[in-house]
Amino acid sequence: MSKLIIILATIPILICGILILIGKGRFLIAGYNILSESKKNKYDIRKIEIILGIWVIFFGISLATILWFVHKIPPLIIVCFIVFTMFVSLILLIYVNNISTKE
After folding, report:
1. What are the residue boundaries of the structural domains of the chain, listed by start?
2. pTM score, whole prediction
3. Could you tell me where the DSSP H helices lie in 1-103?
4. What is the three-class DSSP state of 43?
5. Neighbours of 66 (CB within 10 A)
6. CB-based burial of residue 52 (10 Å sphere; 0-12 exposed, 13-18 middle, 19+ buried)?
7. Which of 11, 13, 54, 73 could form a disulfide with 60 if both were Cys (CB 3.0 to 4.6 A apart)?
8. Tell me, what's the pLDDT at 82?
9. How far from 36 is each of 22, 39, 83, 95, 100, CA to CA, in Å?
10. Is 42 exposed, middle or buried (0-12, 13-18, 19+ CB in 10 A)?
C-alpha cells in the first residue's frame, strides 16, 4: 500500500486528536455545542477533551499501523490486531465511563 495513502488517511485523524487534546477542538465533541450554558457548566470539559484526544490519537496510530503492515503480514494476525485494538478501546471506554466528568 502506498505511503501516501497511509499519510492521507491518518494525518487528519491525528490532527483532530491533537486539536482536541490541546483544547481547540471542542466543536468536535458530539453534543457539546447544543448544550445550554448551565448544562455545559456541569461537565469538566477539560477531562473530556483529554480522554477523547488520547483516544483519537490512539485510533490514528492504530489505523496507521494496520495500513502500514496490511500487505506484509498474514490476515490472521491482522484480525488479531484489530481485535486487540477493539479490546483496548473497550477497556478505555469502560475506564472513561467510570471517571466522573461532572463537576
Report:
1. 3-98
2. 0.68
3. 3-22, 37-40, 45-69, 75-98
4. strand
5. 17
6. buried
7. 13
8. 80
9. 23, 5, 38, 27, 20
10. exposed
